[in-house]
Design a protein that fits this description.
transmembrane, two-stranded antiparallel sheet, 135 residues, mainly alpha, membrane, single chain
């Protein structure tokens, strides 16, 4: 893992998103599962139980990939990065609508976009030499 940017990024992001998913449940007591407004994690990120589960699933996928292989980490970093890029952009347009089933707010959008940049940067730009050598 020391010589793979993708494995390191996937492992760190996976652990962080798992932690965020777990901590989210501490602020979503009494919040409907797919509420448009939720509890505030760290005082700024809005979450509901569905959002917490999404963080847990994404965190698990990243952590497992990061601990598995360079190829798995590259793939998951790229896919999750692309999903976060889309979510970060679309989030700005659905924030005040019934489509906002993850209780997203502006801080969430910017965090998703920042995550997308790092994950896509690693997935598309790092460990190219190992791409064909590692399965």
């Amino acid at each position: 893992m020391r010589n793979s940017v993708n494995r390191l990024v996937a492992t760190i992001f996976g652990a962080v998103y798992l932690l965020v998913g777990l901590l989210g449940f501490a602020v979503t007591g009494g919040v409907d599962f797919i509420a448009n407004e939720g509890g505030l994690l760290l005082g700024i990120f809005e979450v509901n139980p569905l959002h917490n589960i999404a963080h847990l699933l994404i965190g698990a996928a990243l952590l497992i990939a990061g601990l598995s292989s360079i190829s798995a980490a590259r793939t998951v970093n790229t896919v999750v990065g692309f999903v976060y890029l889309l979510l970060g952009i679309v989030g700005f347009f659905i924030v005040d609508s019934a489509l906002n089933i993850l209780a997203l707010n502006t801080a969430d959008h910017f965090l998703h976009l920042a995550s997308a940049i790092v994950l896509l940067g690693a997935g598309l730009g790092a460990d190219k030499r190992s791409r064909t050598a590692t399965v």
